[in-house]
Amino acid sequence: MHFAARGHNVVAIDNYLRRTIAKETDSEPLISTPGLPERAGLFEEKSGHKIETKIGDLSDPDVMFDIVKQSMPDAIVHYAEQPSGPYSMKAFDEARRTLQNNLDVTFNCIWAIKESNPDCHLIKLGTMGEYGTPNIDIEEGYITITHNGRKHRFLFPRAASTLYHTTKVLDTDLLSFYVRTYDLRVTDLMQGPVYGLSTPEADLDPRLCPNFHYDDIFGTVVNRFVVQAIAGVPLSVYGKGGQTRGYLNLLDTLQCIELAVNEPANRQQLRILNQFTETFSVVDLAQQVKSAAKQMDIDVTIEHQENPRKEMEDHYYNPVHTGLTKLGLKPNYLSDDVLLGMMKRVKAHKDNIDTRIINPRIRWS
Ligand SMILES: NC(=O)c1ccc[n+]([C@@H]2O[C@H](COP(=O)([O-])OP(=O)(O)OC[C@H]3O[C@@H](n4cnc5c(N)ncnc54)[C@H](O)[C@@H]3O)[C@@H](O)[C@H]2O)c1
What is the dihedral of CA 255, 69, 119, 153, to 10 degrees? Predict the structure, then answer.
């Protein structure tokens, strides 16, 4: 919708993997929305902008090759992965589905571009979780290492803490290899957790609302805390809550992708950009939600729970994120107003909240 509203010809393809897993795991979003073609029709009715849609599985090479050949895009924005860390840690079948889906889509996409549209710029969604939480500053994709008196520039070391994040590490290696080998144009966006449910296009009609999950499988932490505040249950902080990550508003993820599309990557080296605007610990976020909720006369409590994950709860975290700022990113920071806007919207759907699906149902051990 963001690109169509700015005059681009957009083709959107999805196989409903996310909706399927949400149903299978009882993780329905807070606000239910119609399917892709219905949403595109609704968007056209409200805005006058057309989006072509297709339901298909991009892990099937024929589907990927056909769509790239038919539409010959200038750019492909590749979101199509199983994006839940907890789901990928559930058991063998879920791990295998995550590994196969994510790597197959990336692999097929690279080959479809190489075979039929080598000028196409691929914008691939990676994650800041690829880097993990090393005890040194995190650079933007690359680091120069001096060893025994000689220097070389390498991909920054990665150490993910879920299988999902590990599939993103493997994607980055595939992209790096194919860019070096076939001179493709690729941008890998290392994105942090996204919050928010409002964009100018999504706000045209309630049925255009983005997927808003608040469960332990798909819900990102800000979304979960906002829903817990409205439901009147304690905000669940895993362990000490010192886990620090780089976050960004939904508006900024769209801005970043548009900036990347408008300035395509050079050939020969994979362009990596760290995509977040500010860092918070989990405890910082809980405090911020608590203080915003006070303005709605909601008294929020914060509860530390046993951590279902294997991760550091207290660590150094200093990632560079200058690449997108240089391209022109104007951040929308997390403010009380942003949180209050989310809380008001969630309050309107309070009856849909199922508090049983917020607390962890999946453990790493
Ligand atoms: N949301 C976040 O906070 C966040 C943070 C970092 C990275 N990311 C990455 O950004 C991308 C989008 O994330 P999201 O939260 O919007 O997830 P999402 O699940 O809402 O979007 C991914 C879409 O891809 C589709 N898909 C998956 N496999 C497919 C396949 N084989 N064929 C066709 N469609 C397929 C899904 O059905 C879903 O609609 C993902 O790659 C995710 O890993 C998201």
Answer: 70
